[in-house]
Amino acid sequence: MSAVGIPRLQPGKDVNKPQAQKRRIRLIADEHCRGAMVRADRVRVKQVLLNLLSNAIKYNPEKSSVQVSCYKHESAWHITVRDNGPGIPLDQQRKLFQPFSRLEATAQVEGTGIGLVLCKNLIERMGGQIGLISSPEHGSEFWFALPAHS
To answer: Model's pTM, two decimal places?
Structure first.
C-alpha cells in the first residue's frame, strides 16, 4: 500500500458525469477531500468511490444532488457518499453486502448485486471498513474508512 489522495470530482472529466447529467443530478465534493491521504491502492480506492457514486446517482431522484464528504477521525479518513433517494429499511441493509442480493424496490434499476460486495472486499483488503447510514424517505449515506497516511 502507498500514500494515496482521495480522487477528486472534476466537473466534465468524471466517469459518472454523463450518468449524472442525464438524470440532472449535481455532484458536490467537499473541500476536505483535497487533503485526505490514505494508505491504500489508488486504483481500488477510485473503483470503490466510482461504484458508490454510480449507485447514489441511480437511486437518487432526478434533479437532486449527491454529496461526497471527507473527514478524519482518529487514525482514519472517512469518505461518505450521500444521496436523497428513498432510503433503505434497517432489515434490508444487511443484505446489501451479500453477493447477488438486490432489494425488492430496486427491480426497475439496472444492476447485478455485486458492486457493494466488491467494494466491501476491496476496502477490507486495504485495512478499512465500509457501511451505511440510511432510513426510509431520508436517503442513504454510504461510507468507507481507510487508514490515514502519516
So the answer is: 0.85
* Average of per-residue pLDDT across 8-29: 74
Average pLDDT over residues 55-82: 92
Q: Using alpha carbons, select from 8, 93, 10, 84 the residue that is nearest to residue 46.
A: 8
Q: Which among 12, 106, 25 is positioned nearest to 60, based on CA atoms?
A: 25
Full strand arrangement of the beta sheet holding 140-147: 26-29, 65-73, 76-82, 140-147, 129-134
Amino acid residing at 68: V
Grid cell for residue 125: 483488503
Distance of alpha carbon 48 from alpha carbon 27, whole angstroms? 16
User: Which residues, at least 6 apart from 121, have a Cβ–Cβ distance to it below 8 Å?
Assistant: none
pLDDT at 149 over 60: yes
User: Rounded to an integer, what distance in angstroms lies between the CA atom of residue 124 and that of residue 120?
Assistant: 6
CA 96, 101, 106, 110 torsion: positive or negative? positive
